[in-house]
Structures are given as structure tokens and as C-alpha cells.
User: Fold these one by one.
Assistant:
Number 1:
Amino acid sequence: MTGADTDRGPLDGVRVLDLSSALGAYCTRLLADLGAEVVKVEPPSGDPMRRRPPLRDGITGPEASLVFASYHANKRGITLHTGRSEAMDLLAELGRTADVVVLAPSRRAPLTGFDADSGLPRWARGDAVVCVITPFGLTGPWRDFRATPLISFALGGGMHRVGTVEGPPVAVPGQAQWDEAGIHGALAVLAALEARPRHGGQVIDLSVHEVAAGKDFLVERYDVEAMFGWGRAAGVGFPPTGTWQCLDGPFEVASHQLHHWDAFLTMLDHPEELSEPSLADPLVRRDLFDGLITIIERLMATRSREELFEKGQRAGLPCCPRYTPAEFLHDAQPRARGLFVTTAKEGLGTVTLPWGFMKSTPGMLTLRRPAPGLGEHNTDVFVRELGHGAGELRSWESQGLV
Amino acid sequence: MSDSAPLALDGVRVISFGAFVAGNTVALLLSELGADVVKVEPRSRPEVLRMPAYAIGEPFTEPSGVPNTVMYGALSRSTRSLSVDLANPGARPVFHRLVASADVVVENFAGDTLANWGCSFEELVRDNPKLVMLAMSGFGHTGPRAGYRSYASNVCGYLGLTAGWGFSHGTLSDYIAGTTSALAIIAALGFARRTGDPVHLDVAQIDTMTALMAPLYLDPLVNGRSSPSAPNDVPGSWLSGVFPATGHDRWVAIELEDAEDWATLCRYLDRSDLATSDPGEATARRPELEAVFAAWVAERSPHTAMHLLQKEGLAVAAVQDSEDIWRDPQLRSRGFMVPLDHPEFGVLNYPRPCHRLSRTPARIRRTPPRLGQHTEDVLRDWLAIGDDELRLLEQANAVFQAPADRPGGAPPRTG
């Protein structure tokens, strides 16, 4: 498999038991990419993410979801009905091997042996780092409220500010709000591992709601200004800041500093129509808003985006094409950065998926395997590592426990 | 919040040149997890977010004449401010000594600023052979678009997120890259310890966002087609959307993930005739159920709608605005609001760090510093510099210490 930076990442030798859901999937993916040995535990019926579209065209069944293939790459996978009390002994055995446990318990996916007040699973090791990611945290009046990424974005204050002025507010695509909490979860796990030689194991109570509400100056701004000036705005700045239609699609210019005006003129080869020196003053440009827009629209319409991208950037202007996701995939930069990797996965075939959330010298990321098939590593883990007989495994399977 | 609890990153020293939201977020996260983070700002070229254009409310001026804003305060809290001017060659020897005693250097300069000061990674590694150095950028430091400039909104546009979402975002990629960078730094510290080699991190907003927004690319990558979904439509869910509630600009978000949710809502709204366990049927009946739900929401406040339907076990939420966040009972019950008294800003609430580790919880360490407030402290703590040398550095304008007779630096009051 190509794309790996190293065989031994920073978390080499760290064992992570992933009992989380879609909430937590990105957290453990980051830990796996950094070299941890992650075992993803699914119910015998499969993680609900296995049914999440988009599916690969022409494929059905538990391996068809590209979302699952992406979020769970680099992990091993076993099945266990963790809500059943009979799972207790196996959880204890798994827990004994785990340095890190990542959980996302909910009313719909209860976890046996989990004490919601302490955040501790009874079966975890005393020196384990237990990261409990929940939509609202383990305490508080809303702790049992149900959420999805859309719900978390709505409650956390991010959604209200996105959308047209008249509404409705619009959710960010994918599960970005949950995955942002996943990055914080991984950060907290790494901090706890760093502290582990001095302080031993601990529980991390990570609330998605606090991640969302703790950014973008929501609290500080309300303290200062209350709700003054808080609508969904049409846009910020004045020409040439904005999005312009070029020969082959839309192109963005962000001219927020004084010297950006000069860079903008250089990008357009110093057009006669914009040669008036007073236009260097943003306040003058604000006053001439509508007239300038007409001129700039005409000038941009005859250029290609690539020409403007190169010339504008060379002149120091923050600018870029507004690509569709598919156009971005074909740009030279993500290809040169190696942001996608092709892997073959049984039941799914050969697919190309996003890879590599950061770069470094020396490289720290490890790519070991594609996402696991349903129960793919049951024998690996239950028989080879925990020492159970193949017959035992078969009997658990027939009971629906595994 | 206990000010005496140990901190996870106690003993880690970080020198940060990180500017704007992304760069300052790295410093903030590491310092609240326990690192001693020193933000470097020359008096003559203060952080850009101090400029009045970024003011929240009124802009402020510190006694030294340096401007400041609540926006910068919200990102610089918990760090210490060291004013060293590397454009002044007289400051460089002491800076190299600081690097020798530090673990991490953070920067997101555009262009060759550090190299021009003789402070490139290769040069700093000579001071500190196990250095972890973070270079943050929009497009990365390799590839044909290396060094390209961007604001977070450009990153959104370039990646296809703006096209896929229908809207742009001014800070999303800043926070994602900032948090990812903090994670990468802690990982690299252990890596450098194990290997004995320095680590140079190249964290690009486009890389971190491509990984985060993976669902956006799956259909084009694998199936060779684009699949833009309608606003607020969650692929795979039975019903999702945002509906107007009573009041001005008030909204309710709902997502029904499966047949069980669908049945619960039908029953609650007295429309069991719309119940079905077949996804195809549900798609056909969705406009009708949405219309019934919209009429129900239209007569209720967003929080009432949320409470009634959460009791039924449904994923329903008020679309909270910043006033709602400020009043939020869930956040308040967990001590989310932390008031800090600041000599210019007065008392303001700041959000408690989300990293609630049971033994080493992250916490707000100190009120936002004035520029140069900790210059002498840091030089003494890290280098044991004496009074004579300090005076010489100050006379050469290599370093600047904010006047000591001013208030500030009081420990945070806990709420």
C-alpha cells in the first residue's frame, strides 16, 4: 500500500479500543494514522455507518459504504454485542490490552459495564486513557439529549450564521461538527498519554457542544455586543473582494489588506479602467461599489481561472478558483501533496480515498490497511491474541454475541 | 476549576509566532493543556488581530501604545507575551538561546521571514537538535502551489466546500488546522524523544480540510460523479431539515435517522397514517410529513419544540444564536463561562477549554497579556538572564518589557 510515511509512527505500540460510533470515528482514525493499533468494535449487525451513502456503484452489503471505508481505514475490526451483559467478560479481556479506550455511549447504543456518572467502564484498565465523546458531555440537563452532526451544528451556534439572510440556516455537509470534536478528542488523548507516566490513567469527558460553542468568539462577542450586528450577512468587504465569473468558472478574491489592491491590479495587468490612484483607498472603493463591480466583472470574464490564480498569487493576492469538489480533485496541488491513496478492500474493490491529514519531515503517518470487513479480525483478536478456541468463537457467533 | 490541579503538558515549552486565528489557536490549545507558551511579538509589528479592523466592540490601546482587541484577547489568553524583535540582529543571540531551551517553535509566516532572520528550521535545529517546529500554511510547503496565500474563506472555496455547501466560512479551516497542529505537535514531541531527531511539521489547511471533509469527495473519487445534496439534506437519513419557529429568525433543526424515528414522529403528530418501515415509501411521504411538522413547529418556540421532541427520543434542536449560547443551561451547568478581569477589556466571559481530563484538566491559565508583559519573566525563567543583560537588551531595542506598574496578569477568577 502506498502513501505511508513510516512503519512506526509516534503512537507505535499504543493499543486503542474503539467502541465509539460515527462520533469518535475520526478521532480513532487520527490515532490510527499516527501509528496506534486501533481495534474497532462493531455490533454483529454492523456499524450503522456501513449503510451510510455514498455507496460504491454496483455494490451492496456491509462493504459498500464509502463513508465507512474512509473513516475506518487503518483500523482492525471485530464484532461484539457490547450492550449485552454476556459481553462483560470479553470486554474485560479486551480492556486489559487497551492503553486507550474511545467511547461514544448513547441511549441507543448502551455499553455494558459503563458508569455514565464517572465516565469509566468497569472493565477498563486503571491506567487506561478513556476518552468519552458525547454530544453534550456526561453531566448537565441535556446529557441524554439525542444529536446527529446536523443537530450538534444547530445547537452549538455554528449553523445560525450560515445561509441566506432570510434563512433557513444551513448545516455544514458531512459530519464536520462531530469530526472537529474528534480532533479535540485525539488531542486530549495524546495529552493524557503524554501525562500518563506522571499521572496514570484518566477519563476525558469531551462534549461536542462545548467544542462548537467554544470557538468563533461566540461567548466573548455576546458579552461585548449582545446581539448587535449578528445577522447572516450577504458578504464581507468590498471590491475586489468577492467571487467573480471567469471564462471557466467562479474565482474568489480576498483583498483585506492595503497592499492587496496593487496585487489585484498586477494580476489584471494594470487595466486602464482601474488606474485612478484614489482607488487604492478601500473607503473610496466602498463608495464606488456598484460601478466598480461592473468594471471588475467585465475584466474578469475574459480570463481563465488558472491564469488569474498564478498571476494573483505571484503578486501576493489571496485568491483562488471556487472549485467543485470534483474540480479540486484534479488540481495539481492535492495530487502533488498526495492527498488521496488507492487501496483494495475485499467486498469493495479498488478505491481511491482521502489520505494524509498532515505532512512532516521525517514522516509520522502510517497506512497499514483498508477499513475492516465486518468481523474481519475476529479470529485475529479473539483467538490469536486473547487465546480463545475457534470453537468458542463459533459458539459466540451462534448466540449472536459476536 | 482548580488552579492547583496538575496539567498534562506541564514542562513543555513553546515559542509561538503563530498569527491570525489558526496560528493563535495552536498556542491557546497547548497553553491551556499545560505548556508554557510564549507568544513572540515585536512592539513595532504587533499581531495583526490586534488591529482595530478586528475589534469586537471598541478597539483598545495598551499603555505602551500598542493596539488590542477582544478578538486577540480571546485567542491570547493563557499564553505569555514575550516581545523580542528578530528584525533587530541584536535580538537574535538571545532568541537562539530561547530556542535551545524550548521544545517547540510554531510559525505561520508567509514567505521567507524566518530564513531572513537566520531562524530557518535548519538553523534552529543547530540550537536544539530535538526541536519540533510547526510550519502552518494554507496550501502547504511542497507542491506547485506551495506558498500560495489564503484566508480560511479561500480554503473553503478552493476545496469545493463552498460549492458543496452553498456557503463559505471565514474560520472553519483555521480552527481545524489549528487543532490538528496542536495534535501533531504533541505526537511529534514523543516521536522526537524516541528517534532523537528533530521534526518539521508542514500542516496545510488544504490537507487538514480534505481529510475532515472526506465525505465531500467520495462520490467523485469512486463513482466518478458529483452528488450535491439539497441544503440540510443528510444523505441516508429519512428526514432532515430546518424549519421556522415562532419569533424573529428562530429555527428548529430535525433529523430522523431511521424507521423508528419516522414512526415516533408520525405518532407524536397524530399522523400514524404516514408511518411506514419502507424507505421508498417514506421518501414519497416525506413532503407531507414535513408540511405537518412545519405547521407544528411554526406555533412553538425553538426550545419548546426541542424539549417536547427530545422527550420522545428524537434528534431535534433549537438552531441556537449567540444569545442562546450565552444563556445555554447545559453549558452553564458545566461551568462553561469563565470570567476574567482584564485591564483594558474589563470583566468578560471566556469559554472553558473542552479538554476535561479527570486528573489533568485543561484550564484558562491567565488573563490575556499585554504585549511584552512577560518579557523579563520569560528571559529569567528560561535563561536565568541577569539584570545587566536585560538592561542591555532593552537599551538595544532588542526586547521590550511592558511597564511593570500596570495591572494585569491577575489569576483568573473562577465562575
Number 2:
Amino acid sequence: MSLLLVALALVAAPPPPSRMQPPGHIAVETRCEACHSPAGWTPVSFDHSRTGFPLEGRHVSASCRACHGSSTDFRAPVPTSCGACHQDVHTGEFGNRCASCHDPSSWATQFGPDAHRFTNFPLTGRHAAIPCEECHQNQRDRRFTRAAADCFACHQTDYARTAGTSLDHARAGFGIDCKSCHFPTRFKGARFAGHDACFQLSAGPHAGIGCLDCHTTLTSFATPGTCSTNTADCMRCHACSHETQTHARVAGFQCSNRKCYECHTFTPATGLRPPAARVNR
Amino acid sequence: MSATPRIAGALLAAGLVAGAGARGEARSQGRVGSVLYATTTRLYLDAGSRDGLAPGQVLHFQRSGSCRVEQVSETRATCLGAGGAGVTFPLPEPPPPRPVVRLPPPTRPAVLEQRRSVLASASYPHVDYREAAGGGLEARRGSIDAGIGHTTWWVSGGRGAWNQERADAGIRGASLGAGFTLDLDLSARRWSRRSDPISFRPDDPTQLYVWEASISRRSGDGGPAFSIGRVRPYRVPGQVILDGAQAGWRLEGGSEAGVFGGAVPNSVTLAPSFDHGTLGAYWIGQRVFEADSTVRFLRHEARIAFVNTDDLGKRVEGEALLEARITRRLDAAVNVRAGAGAAHGLGSLDTIRLDAVRLDLTARPFDSLSLSGSFRHEGGSVPELDGPGHLLLGGEARHADASAAWVPIEALRFSVLSGLSTDLVTQKTRRWIGPEVALTRLFGDRGGVSLGYFQEDGWAPGRSAWFQVLARSQGVLQILARVSWFQTSQIAPVDLDELGVSTSIQAQLGPRVAFRLSAMARTVLNGQRSLFGPATGQVMLADAELAGTF
């Protein structure tokens, strides 16, 4: 009987004082010291990493209510996706995975030229060091969906800029596949694949010279690929005083471009060496 | 026991008693303290503040020598000096005894119980947790971000570096009183040096961009909600900024419906333009479910609008977004936009086209394994109107990616990443896949390293590899350094090798001010073997920013 009375008393007894709910906090134990300190109710210190959403970067200084709203029940679920709290300035283009480009320390983008490689247009050469707006011009929507992977789409004006010059691309019949001749670092220093068949530039004494160093007239590319333009400006680099001296024993030598070709006809086999019979020994 | 030791013991006891009696007599008459323990420099005394000792006091031993009192408790003290255990010294006059205060009798239990019940039932506001209008998931204190920065782009053989200075400012949700808030987002930029060819606004060395300058009122308790000014419409999917207003009615819990309308600024300069505009309606819904429910979080937003912009012309657009968290293992989001041209008015719409379909999935089948993937179809709705050479670029494109990350132990992560991007206009496609290994806590809390490799395929095939080090001093400094190698084929007359280094430094200069420096440099071999030969090229990009948050 006494046991029964004790059991009834235990059941009917009010909860111990330590289980009481503090005003303003719902369903939370009264271990105030877990978050608060005797210095005052603020600042609040709480190990948020135990919740599965560690507070990093700017989230550290965010007020509790910024995420938990007006609810005082901190155990109530809070959405962890970025879009639940942050408005998307990219109008949805990149979905809800903000962390691909941003980190919690600031909205400054972590997306750089290296990361751009994982798009349809790897930023090679100079493309890695130009402002984004040079290609992605839209500022209003902060979108980057301009799928212009074709060189000519951006460089049409550069192609057109050659009109009327000795490198008139259209007149010379050059195609619009820029990368077949040009490197992505700069336009100068192009490599014309068929040039070696007429005049070796990929190696030898003329390696590395620019197109404009020799091709100085509009007719330079009248018949491209035929090796018969005969318009290279040899004398621009080869000084007559020096060449006259070194060709003193060459019969019929004249210091003019056209005369150079009569002897210095390039072949892959002989290079630029003139026929021995033409030299007076 | 023999008689001799017994007698000796009795004498010793008598001696001790006599000694003690003599010392007690001395304490009562002359008062003497003694050294309990001694080290080479410090003595530990059997007297303290009750006996009149105080720090700095010099005690003179009764035979010879002295020490200076260092620290004092009530009954013990330390003294700096030389001496041995047992050395005695005269004590100063003790302080007068404190008056005895008689405490009141204990409070009766009935009174204590009454006080406890009053305290328990009392309501009191917490300092930082007072309920306020405007609460809700988006409730926040206003913040001000401001920063100044400088960026340099440089390429070897070019006409000199490009330099830009900028000042950025942002105000987010600053309270204006009566529930009104101010939002501001702007950037002023000045090109101090640029050289031809310039594609983007070549005639404007000074540029100002204002993305947001609006006054809003949006209460978490529901009721009318509106924004006016240069508005970035609140949670209206796909809606561009506008000079006008958004007005709606908000339900308790965050759901909202309303209308918006105004002029649409120029897409390149953001200059106000009354030639273009938009008018539409929107719906916002967001709900958080119980922690043990299958669907934990659901967000759904929709928009239908008539738009007339400089890049797209007149159109009717509809867009919907749905985001869900299903258990704690799966996050999913889908976004669909469709539109039809309305060049000749709403009565003669063109065929409806799918402007965008976006799907994002992230699954965590185990705590140590994460799988994610996305698919995007971008229709022809985002052409570049004022692109290089004033061409109409862009067009339909598709992108997809998939990745898996396994974290067998806390400090180790294996990842496989892959992706695919296709330009449907030119039919150019690139694909990439590769592993990454990260020792995320190689330096403990100070950082880690990662190493990765990618094999790439498509119109510009190639491969790339990198090694990255991340070091940080928690909350003060973070340094990221990476060495990269890229090889790309079919993008130049020869296979292109590039070697690059990049670094990013973030230093917290104070509780509100941070400095950031990012730099990237590459050498492009252009088919050469030397890193810096005459036919190679070098590029560099550096950005420095001083930013504050207030």
C-alpha cells in the first residue's frame, strides 16, 4: 500500500524546476549557460556546427533571427539551401548551387579563369586576362549564358580590321577559323600552315618573324599558297650594304627583292641555300 | 621496549611540548612566523594577511637574513629571498579584527516558495529577442557593405595593362522606421587605362551601375508588401530589375501574391529607359515542415509577365520554380521558363518556346557520400545584343554536370567531377571528367591540400591538372595558392601548353574591415619548350579590394 502511495505521489508531482521553460524559449532546457554567460543575455555563444550547418564566414555574425525568424523554437527546421534566405541576382541561371562560385566569406566570386575551363570555352592565352564584360556584356541580369564558342563571333571586327592592309584576310582568301593560324595570346605571330612549303618560318633563320615583316604590299596574298607572289620585302631586313658585300662574287647580283627570288627559291630539301652554279668561286 | 629508548622518547616529547609552549608564548607575546618550505629563491611561510603580512613587506629573520613578501593569502604567503625551512621571523602587528556582523535568520521556506513561483511566472523580454514587426525567414538587421578595389589585366606583347578602379556599396534591409527598409546595390567603375581593341563600352571610361535602390515594406506577420524605386523584384523568378514597383499581399508564413511593373533599364548600361518595360503577376510560397516529415522544405515561385526589353523585344513569359528538401538526403530544384513573341501585340503571339529548363539534384545516400548533378537547357531568350562588333551572339545551349564526393574520414575527400556543355547553334561541345583528392585537414585547423586532374574532350580537347594549398588562421587570414597546368588542342596551330599560378588572400584587418587580393599569372608556351622564350606569351590578372561591413 505504501509503495502504491509513493508511486502515486511521484506521478502526481509537478516536474522538477530544472525542466521549466524559460520565457521566450520553447521546448528548450534551462541550461542557460549553454548559450548565455553572466556578462549578459547578449552576445549569445552557441556551437552551431553540431546542427549540421556550421556557421562560416559572414554567417558567423548573422543574427539568430535572420535565419530562425521570429520563432523562439530553435529546434524547428530551418531550410539550409542558399535560395531560402538569399535572393538570386542571376535570375535563376545557375540554379541553387551558389557554392560553385561563392563562399560564405563574401559575395565576391571565386569563379576565375581556371574555373572557366569547365564551360564550353576554355580561357586560353589572352582570354584569361580580359574583363568578363568584354564577352559577357549584359550587366542588368548578371547572366553569363552567351554561348559564343566560335572565334569569329567575337573577332569579326578584328578580321574586318585587316581590310585594305597588306594582310587583307578577305582578299587573301583566309578563312574565318582564326585558330588555324593565330595563337590565343595575340594576333601577331600567326602561323600559316602552308607557308613552310614556300618559305620556311616554323624553323630556321626566319623562324618567329611576323607576317608584316615581309608582306608589306596589298598584292602580297594575291595568289596564296602558290609560292609565286614574289612580293616579300627582303630588303626591309637585309641591308643592301651588307648583302652587296657578301654577294660580291655572285654574278648578276642586284640588291632588290625580285632578284633575291631568282636564287633563293625555297624548297624543303635545300632550304634557302642558292644553287652552287650561280656562285662565282 | 627497553628503558633507555623509553626515557629518550619521554624527553623528546617533553622537549617538543616545551618548544611548542615556548613558541606559543612567543606568538602571544612577540608573535613569530616560520618558513615551511624553501627553494633557492622563494620561501613559503606559515603566516598570511590575518597575521599582518602584505605584499612588498620585508621580513627579517630572527637569526640572520631577510626576504620580501611576494604573494599573500589569508593564512599563507610566499617570500622572495634565501633561507631554510624552520627559520623564524617576527610578525608585525595584526590588523584589527573585523566587526562581527550578525546575519538575519534564514527566510522561511514558505516565503522562498512564494518568491520562486513569482519569478517562474514572470515574463520578461530578452535583450536581443524581442518580437518585432518584419519578422520571418527574411528578417534581418540592416547591413552596409562598402569596398574599393583595383584590377589590372596584363598580357605580354600587348599595348599595356588595363587598369580599373571601382567603388562598390550595398545596403541590405536597413531600417527606415515604421517597418520600411532601404536596399541599395551599386558599383562605380573608372578605367584609368584601356587600349584598343575594346569591346565593352569603349567610349565610357567611367561607368555607374545601380542594380537596386528601393524602399520596401514586407512584414513577416503578413499584410501588404511592396517595393518601389529601382527594384530587384522580391523572389519573382527570372524577373529582371525594373524602375517601378512591386506590390502584393503577404500571408502569415511567407506566402505572397501580387503584381509588378515598370520600365526596364538598358541591359548594358543600366540607364533608365522608358522605351522598354514589363508588367506581370507573381506568386511566392515557402513552407518548412516538421523535422521528421518526408518533405522538410518546399519553395515554389511563379511569374507571368508581358516584357518588352532591348534584347528580347516584346514577349509574354511564364516561369515557375520549385525547390524541395526531401528527408535530409535529397535536395531538388526545377525551374522552367517559356515565352512567346508578341511583336504585334498580345493578340498575335508567336509559337511558345521553351526558354529555359533547369534541374538540380543533390543526394546524400550516406553521410559520407554526396552525389549531385544538374541539367540546363537555355533557349534563345538571352542573346547578346550589344556584343563585340554589335553582333547578335548567344543562342541555345545545354549544360549538364555530375559529381560524386566520398569522405571516408573527416580529413580526406575523394571526388569525381564531370560535365558537358553544348552550343546548339554551332554544335560545338566540350566534355570533361576527372578525379580530385583533397586532404582537407592536412594542417589541422590551419588548412589542407588538394590535387586534381581532368581529361577533356570535344571541339577543344585537352587536359588539365592542379595542386592547391589552402592555409588559414581562423577568422584572420586565409591564403589559397594553386599551380595549374593546361594543355589544349585544336585551339591554336599547335597544341597549347599553359602553366599558371594563382593565389587568393583574404585578411581580416579588424572586426569590420577585410582585405582581399587575387592574382593569376600564366605563361603560354605556344609550342615552345622554354617557359619565357620570345615566342611564348604571358598573361596576368590581379585584383585587390578593401571591404568593410557595418
Number 3:
Amino acid sequence: MQDREQFDQLVLPHLRAAFNLARWLLRSREDAEDVTQEALLRAFRFFSGFHGSDARAWLLQIVRNTCYTWMEKNRPMQSAVEFDELLHLSPLPGPEAQALAGGERERLTKALEQLSPRSREVIVLRELEGCSYKEIASITAMPIGTVMSTLARARERLQQVLSRPGIKEANHDV
Amino acid sequence: MTCDDFFSFLYPYLDGELDAPHSAEFERHLEGCAPCSHALEAQESLRSSIHGAQLREPLPTGFERKIRRQLDEASRPASLRRFAAWRLLAAAALVLLVIGGSWKFAQKQKAHDNGDVSVTAADSAAAELVDAHIRALQPGHLTDVTSTDQHTVKPWFNGRVAFAPPVRDFAAQDFPLVGGRLDVFQGRTVAALVYGRRKHFVSVFIWPDPALDAEQYAGAMNGYQWISWKQSGLRFCAVADTSRDDLAALKDLIVR
């Protein structure tokens, strides 16, 4: 089938980008596997409707939608109203825990996971996938101006989260 | 320009999305402005730790092979036979096409390829909505907001979709409003209203449709009827396993 060959050439090279976005949106590798599979099958099914030049943005848009639909169904309490506010954040590992847990990587992962999905996705698309503002706009169906303000806010949040005192202070409350 | 104005250059500058003249202007400003250059440094260091931490998730072992296998299965022509009504569908889709078939897929497709592909494409638009309706019938999936009160359901959509779906209860006409939910169609969020009809449920999908095409379409697949029409810039598609006449009656109530 000709469609299949084209799909393999144009879309499959972006499988890792797809999985990466799903993993960060869902904060779970296992769930990301399921949802990425579902998204790829959907993409294949609607591939005849794709005529653009940017297969990555097209695929990531489908992955993103599949993730949000999945979260609405499977984590109804969480997805829509996830807070970015500092009050709701759980403590990051302090310096000692960091050393044990693999350091900076762990710390950044925890920090990113504490952002709301809307903040997280723009950071992941920009910093991990290297998407341009225009690509992020087409993936998230937001105007470029909104992409810019969401990204600015997300970065400020991330920095706030990272600069908070770590586990030590939180332990006092226990 | 104030420092605040320059601050809005910070991220586009960092991301290489600021044009050359503005970049030069911003760089001149940075030289004399400690807060802005600190902010830039902080963001640059955040970026380099993100990049250094290699947060991009690697694929699980064997994942790509698994996906390819599933695609093989999905592209096997035999899988089409799962749909008993496939031929009927293709015929219905052809009719759609002949009567001037728009529906996003059909239109896009026509310019691109031969008629054969259009048939599958037009048909998959309706198939997607029928699928969404069937999925919604699973326990707990029918509605996100359950209420027979239109004044509860209508505001629920505020902020969830970027348009105002018309929500009315037709209990007096034997189509009681059951609730509403969000669904995804052709990659975007659409509103779905749920009405009861005796022991059956009807999903009415609604989304903004800027296309000029104001035709009414209808069809049947896998035992489900669907009817689609356009009204005040919105396209509607009602899907149910009731009779075509029932759907037409509901459509008349909504249009009225």
C-alpha cells in the first residue's frame, strides 16, 4: 500500500518525538506507550488527510489531542484543573537526595512534572524537541502570541520551582 | 522604550525568534541593564541544565517494531472486512461526493488525489463520529456534565470550547436532554450534546465550520444513523442507533 510507505517515510521518523511528548504530558512511560500507540494508529488512519509539509507537527498535534482525551477519561480529577501555583507543589529532592537520585536530571524531571500540562508541553516542545514558535502554535492550536506568553510563564514557574528550598525545609512540617 | 518593553524581547531573543534589528537593539540595552542581563543569564543557564540533563525520553526497547507490526495489521486490506457495511459505506460516501461532497476530508482530498481516496476520506469523517458515539456509550463515558437542565449544560461549555453550542431541552417532544461532553473530531475539540430517545441515546456533535458548504448529509454505518447539517456557522452531526426519522425530528427541533 502506497500510503503505508509514505507514512513510514514521513511520520515514523518522529516516533521518538511523539513518545517523548506523551511521556511528559502523562508523566508516565507506561501510559505514554499505550497512548503513543493509539495516536500512531489514529495518525495512520487519517494520513490521507495530511497534505502539509510538517509531518512532525501534524503527528504531535494528534499525540497531544490523544493525551488530553486520555487524561480526561482516565484522570478526570486531575487533567483540566492542574495547578501551577507554588502552594500545590510537593518538595523537590534536596541536595543529599539529589546526589543519590542521579542529581540534576532527577531534580529537573520533578520540577517539570510539577508544572501544569499546558506549561509543561510548551517547555518540552521548545527545549526538548526544538520546535519553533510557529510549530508550537500549530501543534497546540494556539495563536503565536499565546504560545509566547505561555512559554514565558512556564519558564518563570520552572525557575521558581527550581529555586525553592528543597526537601530539608519541607521535613520540618512532618 | 522602557525596560519592561525590552523584557518582552527576552524570550524571543533567547529562542532565536527575534529579528536582527530588534536583537541588535536588545543587545545594546543589555549592556546597560543589569536586571535584563541577569534574567537572560538565568534563562540561559536553565536552558543549558535542561539540555545537559538529557530529558528527552528514549523509546522503550522494541517499541518501534511493535508500532510497525500494528501498522502492518491496520493496513492489511482484510481489516476492512471487519466492517460488515463497508461496501454500503463506500457507496454512501460516493453519493456524498457526487452531491458536491464537502466535509473537510472530501474537499481537501479532491484536489490532491483521485476519486477513490476521497471515498475513504469522506467516509472516515462520519466514521470517526460514529466511533466517538459508540465509545461514549461505554459506562461512564456518555457525559462529562450530566443534567437535564439546559442552564447547567450550556455554561459548562464556557471556556471548554471556543464557541457557544445551542443547548435546549426537548423533553416535551420526547428528546430529553441528558448532558454534554467534549469529544475530539479531526484533531480538535468539539462539543457533544446527549439526548435520550426512548431507550436510546443520541450524540449531537457541534463544531464551528467556516466552509461555505451548507449542505445536509446523512448516512448509516454499523447500524448507526447519522445526519449532518449546518446552522449559524456551526456544523452539527447527530448520531444514534435510532431511526433516521427520529434523527430528522431532533434536527428539526434544534434548527427551529
Number 4:
Amino acid sequence: MRDQLDVVPDAILAGRAADGDTAAFESLARRYGPHMRAAARRLTGSYADADDVVQEVLVQAWQQLDTLREPAAVKGWLLRLTGSRSIDLLRRRRNHASLTTADGEAPADTVSPGAGPETAAVASAGIDSLKAALSALPEEQRRCWILKEINGQSYEEIARTLNISPASVRGRLARARITLVREMEDWR
Amino acid sequence: MSMPNDTFECGHTLEELSLYLDTGEFPDPPHLESCPECRNGLDSLRRLSAAGDELFASDLAAAGSGTDDWLKDILANLALELRPGRSIPLSSDDPADTLSETEGSIVALVRSVADSQPGAVAGKVRLEGDVTVPGSPVAVRLDLAVLFGHALMASAASLRQDLAEALARHTELNISAIDITITDVIDAPREES
């Protein structure tokens, strides 16, 4: 049965999970857990926090699945929940800044020493230079960019997640891209 | 550096180009064909977008697989509560006894009967009607995915019969209809991973 669940469309799994089928819910979690984890890591910059976010989102998703109007849209929904939880966590962390330094883990965006312009230019793909440029962005721009490019959220969805207007999202995203393009092209 | 200013000499801005890439909206689309600055800007934004895709692919690979221990640990900690649904009364020989079964258990029964059909996977199951009142007509509605290569009509007919038998055996519901909606035909090889 598990093999079959792994090949059926999201809507089937979401419908079953809303009915209380834990196997279908776990299949959904296997399907999108890595994407959720990747997005949460990039947003929070912490491996441990990211796994906490994924766990919280799965609990929330199980409780609220029956409110999901369009079961086929479950992937976007899970990622939006992941984005919101990650942002919540960042806000809590800012309020308790002294506690987070005890975490001891390097943020995901931390650039290793020596990965400056010269060595980054050698990296063919530009991932390293993008990571470095991303970590230097103002926080609000960085969040907009990640929610758009890693989470695949629309301007309106990002606006709701960040509690700002869609026009602000458009502006911040554009400024983020302008800075990233400049930083990356400087290094070419 | 190819972009000294946010606003080009043609008067357009990178913000407009950024929006154009996401939405296809631009005040003067033909301009994009002819303006070297705008084309240059679009090229840069597209390269950034490609780098973003690479970063995502790399992040996703680093996040591991859905079958890895990290996710198993998370799932093991979830303690998902049951969804019993409505309570469905059952008759009893002794009037002092109150017997019932949960809607959730009947939904699970329907799912399990559907899943046991070759090539069939149940989706959402609904019991429509007042199941809390003995004898009220109840319609069973079921979404079904069928794996490619299995005969749809034969599957649905034999499933309807199996469901009717199972519901008669395990419940006292007055089943007025069994509606099966085939929502998906899955064009994927089975047992391949």
C-alpha cells in the first residue's frame, strides 16, 4: 500500500489524510518534507530550527487539513505554512536574541572563510556567490526573495506571510534582485 | 558592472523588469524587443533566476530524502490524534447496552475495501446523510485513483459490489447509494522506486 500511496496525486493523499489516514499523511510528509526543510533552513539559517519548523507545520497541517479547500493545492499550502512558521520563529528569535546564540550551529548562510570574490568566481555555478550575496541582503528583502524563489509563493501570499502589502513585496523583491544581480556580476 | 542605475536611459526600471519576469506584465511589451538596456537587464535577471534554481536544487539535495531518519524521527514524534467523526448508533439485544461505531472507522473500512481492488487507491470518502439516526438513508461518496492499465468500469462495478457487502456486514447503515468518482488515472509504473 505504501508503494501505491507514493505514486498517487496529492489530492488523493490530502483527501485521505483529512479523513484521518495517517499513512497518507506520512506519504505527503515524505513527498514534501525535504522541500519544507530546505525552505525552513534557508529562511531560519539553522538546521535545528528548520526541523522544529517542519515538525510544527506537520502538526498544524494534520489538524487543519480538513479546512483545505483545494486538496490538490496541498504542496503550496504546506510550503506557505513552512514560510509563516519560519518567519514567526525569526521574530521570536529577535525578541529573545540572547537565547539563540546558545544554539551553537552555524547559520546555513554562513560563508566559509576564504569564500570571497576570488574563490567564488571560480565556482562555476555561482551558487556560492549567490549564497554570500543573499546573506548580505537586508532581512526583509532576503525573506521576500526566499519565499518567492525557494518557496514558490505569489506576491499576495508573500504579502500575507510577512504582513506587508503586495506592492511592498514587489518593491523588496525587485531591490533584492537588483542587489543580487550586481553582487554576482561583480564577481564574474 | 552592467547596471549602474535602477532606471535605464529609456526610462524603464529593473523593478518593472522584475515584475515582468514574474507576471508577464509590462507597460510597453514591444519595447523589450528593441531596447538593448532592457534586454541586458532581463538577461541578468534570468541568470539570477537560473542561479536561484540551482541554489534551490542544491538546498533540496542537502535537505535529504523523505525516507531518511530525520523525517522518520519527526513523524514518530507527531502523535497524530485520531479523527473519529460522528458517532453511529448500533442496535443491541439488551436495551441497557449502548453500542456505537465511529464514522472514522467506517470511512477507514471503505478505504481499505477500495485499496484492496487491484490498481485502485481510495481518496476522500464521504458519508452523506444523518448517520446518527438509525435507518436514515446514507450515500457513500468515494474518490478513486486507478493505476494505468486497469479496466476502469470493471474496477468500479466490482468495487461497488464489494463495498455494499462490506458495509452490510460491518455496519447497520441504510446505504442508499455508492458513488465512485474516478478522479485520477495514474500513468506511472507501479512498484518502481
